[in-house]
Design brief:
By secondary structure, this protein is of the alpha/beta class. About 40% of the residues lie in helices and about 20% in strands.
Length: about 400
């Protein structure tokens, strides 16, 4: 039972957690993986190595402490986390393990500051948070199993086809290995795939957006091969490289049901602006295909940025869709165009929405933005400057996984 005394004690640690949160979460993950190494197969070890998962959890814990009196403020974040958890196969029984190691880590990292009363308060607070997440996740698991062709947990899919889309991105067409139906989903959602990583000695899950409209005979994911950058302390993508180099047509991989709350609002008639960078275009292609199929009267703007034409995936496909649909207009930006890119229409440099008034639709539009964090920050600031209402902006950051 979370009392008012508990709340005051937890709130009192909010500032401390902002200072020492990353140290705490780094200690927590190391402790948990030491005592429960089986959980390494659930959590993204690439994000563990670069520290982004520890940072994400630290921010979440500090935010929860700050808003303990009204945790409903965090509901959008909790919905996002719950979708990630379900896509990774996290179940109710995992929360007791996490809670035990989190409380022990608070005591071990904060030392004398972690009094028995504070540990009791955080135990009650964590129990409340766990109950909320378990409830949301139970509904998501049930919904995933109840849709036509749906399931809960992991299911075997066969790679029916691999198709190179650019120098970095390859599409994988996945069909149920059991011969069953392909599930429905909402444009913008993702699936997790799980592969055994020989270098680690255990499996790893990764989320990839579904890059085609629902209703097809296969699930299509389009995966960027993450080559890594030692100078930037960004490790090579373990699963993406295995998919590109080792997974062949006919191979069977494990797939979790479609999840995610970054989805196309199909109950509206407003214009749609799809803004993406790099591999962030994959959910946008799904949305574009669905819009021209089910809502051909809605105006659509497809605005995409990438380094150059060699890494531009779905270029011909999107151009063909636009050519056959007068309500669809596209704009492409290459930051570092090559000489051979002159054959394809493009703007030079990064997307600057303030200079795209000739492309943006008139009237209230819905804006969907997806790409790396710096790109997202720039576009969100630009949309705010254009006075686009917050409820008309829908965003998904590609990079860091769930906590």
């Amino acid at each position: 039972m979370l009392t008012q005394t508990h709340r005051e004690l937890v709130k009192g640690t909010a500032a401390l957690l902002k200072e020492q949160g990353v140290a705490l979460t780094r200690h927590f993950y190391a402790r948990m993986f030491e005592h429960n190494p089986e959980l390494k197969a659930i959590f993204n070890q690439g994000h563990q190595r670069e520290g982004s998962q520890q940072q994400a959890l630290a921010m979440a814990v500090a935010a929860y402490a700050q808003h303990i009196d009204n945790p409903g403020v965090l509901m959008p974040v909790l919905e996002l986390i719950a979708n990630k958890h379900v896509s990774l196969g996290i179940r109710a029984e995992h929360y007791a393990i996490v809670g035990r190691h989190l409380l022990a880590s608070i005591r071990e990292v904060l030392g004398a500051l972690a009094t028995d009363d504070l540990i009791e308060a955080w135990g009650a607070a964590y129990g409340q948070l766990a109950d909320v997440l378990i409830g949301i996740e139970a509904k998501l698991y049930a919904q995933a199993a109840q849709v036509q062709g749906g399931w809960s947990g992991w299911r075997n899919f066969r790679v029916e086809r691999k198709q190179v889309e650019s120098e970095e991105i390859t599409s994988f067409y996945l069909v149920p290995a059991d011969g069953g139906e392909v599930p429905g989903y909402r444009p913008g959602q993702y699936v997790s795939v799980k592969l055994f990583v020989p270098a680690l000695g255990y499996s790893q899950p990764r989320q990839y957006s579904l890059s085609a409209a629902p209703g097809g005979q296969a699930l299509r994911i389009s995966v960027k091969r993450e080559s890594g950058d030692e100078a930037a302390a960004r490790p090579q993508g373990m699963v993406s490289n295995l998919l590109h180099a080792s997974v062949k047509e006919g191979d069977v991989i494990e797939v979790a049901p479609p999840m995610g709350d970054f989805v196309l609002h199909q109950d509206r008639e407003s214009p749609v602006v799809l803004i993406s960078a790099g591999v962030g275009l994959t959910p946008m292609v799904s949305m574009l295909e669905e819009l021209v199929k089910s809502a051909p009267k809605r105006e659509v703007r497809f605005i995409h940025a990438c380094r150059h034409g060699g890494v531009h995936a779905f270029r011909e496909h999107v151009a063909k869709v636009a050519a056959s649909n007068p309500r669809v207009k596209t704009r492409v930006h290459y930051e570092f165009p090559r000489e051979e890119d002159q054959a394809h229409p493009h703007e030079v440099g990064r997307i600057e929405l303030s200079r795209l008034q000739d492309v943006l639709p008139s009237g209230e539009a819905d804006f969907y933005v997806c790409g790396p964090k710096p790109f997202m920050q720039a576009q969100m600031a630009a949309l705010k400057a254009l006075k686009v209402p917050a409820e008309r902006i829908h965003a998904e950051v590609f990079g860091t996984g769930g906590v």
